[in-house]
Amino acid sequence: MQLNLGTQMRAELSQIISPRMIQSMEILTLPMMALQERIELELQDNAVLEVREPGQTEEGYPETPELGEGVEADSPAEPESSPDAPEQELVIDAKSGEEDFERMDALNEDWSDYFDEESRPSTNKVSEEMDKKHDAMANMAEREQSLQDYLNEQIPYLDATEINIDLLVFMISHLDERGYLITPLEDIRAAYGQDVTIEQIEETLDDLQRLDPPGVGARDYKECLYLQVALNTPHRDIVKALILNHLEDIQHNRMPLIQKKTGYDLRTIQEAIEILKRFNPKPGAKFATKNVQYITPDIILDKNDQNDFDIRLTDDWMPNIYINLKHFEMLKDKNLDAKSREWLQRKIQSAKWLIDAIEQRRATLTKVTKAIIDHQRAFLERGPDFIEPLKMQQIAETVGVHVTTVSRAVDDKWIQTPRGVFPLKRFFGGGTQTASGEDVAWETIKQRLLEIIGGEDKSNPLSDEDLVTKLSEVGYPVARRTVTKYRKALGIHSSRQRKVWG
Question: Which CATH class is domain 431-498?
Answer without folding.
Answer: mainly alpha
